[in-house]
Amino acid sequence: MNKYRTHKCNELRKEDVDKKISLSGWINKKRDHGNLLFIDLRDNFGITQCIIDKENRNFSYLEKIQLETVIKLEGQVVNRSKETINHEIDTGEIEIAIENFEVLGACKELPMPVFSDQEYAEEIRLKYRFLDLRRKKIHENIILRSKVISYIRNEMTKLGFLEFQTPILTSSSPEGARDFLVPSRLNPGKFYALPQAPQQFKQLIMVSGFDRYFQIAPCFRDEDARADRSPGEFYQLDLEMSFVEQEDVFNVVEKLMVNTFKKFSNKKIMFDKFPKITYAEAMLKYGSDKPDLRNPLIINDITEIFTREDVSFEIFKKLVKSGSKVRCIVTKNTKDKPRSFFDNIDKWAKEEGGSGLAYFTFEKDKDISAKGPIGKFFSQNALLEIMKKTNSEIGDSIFMACGKLDELEKITALARDKIAKDLDIIDENIFAFCWIVDYPMFEKDELTNKIKFSHNPFSMPQGNLNEKDFENPLDILAYQYDIVCNGTELSSGAIRNHKPELMYKLFSIAGYEKKQVDEKFSGMINALSYGAPPHGGIAPGIDRIVMLLANEKNIREVTMFPMNQNAQDLMMNAPSEVNLDQLKELNLALKTKK
Predict the structure, then answer these.
(1) Residue 556 has pLDDT above 80, yes or no
(2) Cα separation of 216 and 377, whole Å?
């Protein structure tokens, strides 16, 4: 028999009454009722209420003992009285009458409470992460993460994928985010890089003749933290498939996502077959390539309206003449909203750095008119045209913004979310997945005006490649795709370019000479020259999947040992200084700041 416990803290029930048992765990909570002391004992599995009366010789010791002390106790299972039954815990019908106890692990004064999930300063939470992880909500999040990863592994195996591990020490990549570099002791002056993703290796696995690969892959990027992105490292479900087209990848990922989200959440899934939205359509309708489809609001382009003679809103008309666009958001049946609702959204837009949002509401007495500060500038015919373009009706309101395209997309995307939240029209009990497809292969750099890759340089361009007009590279679309859920990008993927000559051609458009491609991607180019199959894949982020399933807004709430915003591990004091002997062994010297 285990010397520490006969049962776990979630196991005992009414049928165990009168049994002599032993439990071990942490003191979660104490309640002193004078002659009776109640102790909630907690382990990884649950909580059991234990009691001791004043007559017991151990009472005074337990009365003074610090919360979170690890103890073993022995006692008898007894029924709770009917009025004290706790239906919120598995063991809520019984309690343990304590006879003896032993301290297994003493506890100092706590720097933060463990028995509650109240908000606490991030610095304290990360410094004492081992205490933070004992708290109920985050403890359950980490258990959920483990279960999700195990489930995904099993599902991938069922789908015919083999799990392989790719190198952690590799070469530095010229594309993407900053690398974490590791100096080589045996090769002085040279460095490894931690992989930003196993991108090239998983393609090489396909070239090696394996058909379906996956791994739960650690990835390392030296980039700034965000709510949905950890600084330093993260994990992704990395997968690649041979002899596939875009739809084959979609079918696998959709099945996996639907099954995973149905298993670990009670929320509804809006689409079992995920809608495909082109990048161009997404930027027009949602102002973003990460649309939240739970939000029913759609953005419309009404630039042409401001070229009409019967529209006299001169501010917008002058901007349109100089090349600006006008986009709008229609809110259904908001005629009874107070003026403050509209003014607050206009004020918010200005605080976000925009020029505000012009607005009016469609009305009808004898004729159609517009109620609001700018309504008088539009004729009835102009209003009818707007209603036709935007599918709006009498009683609907319209918010308009004017500006250069990139600024316009940004403010209308934000406004779409803001207005929906103010109107409370987003159903929080839904997961709405979609694919964003048909990304441009190239884009123009705003600073240098040069052509550069817009997404992934190893992607296959669309169309008849023999007839492709490379003279208009900005018109070339790629077989690149993102999967998005509730406004969160879960992953990017692509059908890969497996033809070396085509790769040289595409890189030349982005300003790379053949020699540069051979130097920077030598392993990949060389491998593709020895018979490479058509292949493609994707890599959904594990952290983001669990974040959505746990209904958390910040990725640190589903990461066991995250860093802070400055990429520091406050618990282990990393990054840290190293001594001169270590630097000397690596042939490195630090340049001291003056």
Answers:
(1) yes
(2) 58
